[in-house]
Amino acid sequence: MLPLRETEVGAWSRIITANIFIWATLVVVALSTAVYVPITFSGDIGSGVFGLVIIVVVAVPLASFIRLRITVDWRGLRIVSLLLHIPLKRIPLNKIRAVETMEIRPSEWGCWGYRIMPGRSALVLRAGPGMVVTNIDGKQFAITLDDPETPAALLNTLGSQPSDVTASLGGPR
Questions:
Q1: What average pLDDT score do residues 151-168 get?
Q2: N or C, which terminus of the chain has less Cβ within 10 Å?
Q3: Contacts of 78 by beta carbon, 8 Å cutoff, 6+ apart
């Protein structure tokens, strides 16, 4: 837990770069280009256009995971893609039962990437330290982070504050 006065709230935010998604995006674009550029120059425009659509459909979602903003505050946990500016994960503070830190092993969470499994999901960018959020319904979400102790402690502290304190500061009621 982080020491906060009765009327204080805290915020934590980090931008992370996921090298695994940089490489995955580059590999997809390179392979697709190697296959579809010769097809396009051979005169088969239809296949070339289809290939371009495939490249975009695969590369854009991969690239959206390259730079992520992770935020912890009175709203809970939020993960947003900086490329597309879309939320990838939101867990409201009032839906969080517990937060803990642990060593995340990709093999235990479905391998690398954004994984969805029965009862749990994860954003595993590497093996190492991470944070696991357990919702009030028992579902878990894990994310690998440097220094996961700080956001975990802040979520635990904010979650333990009386709801009238966070409500008066603009938080969930």
A1: 75
A2: C
A3: 69, 70, 71, 72, 87, 89, 90, 91
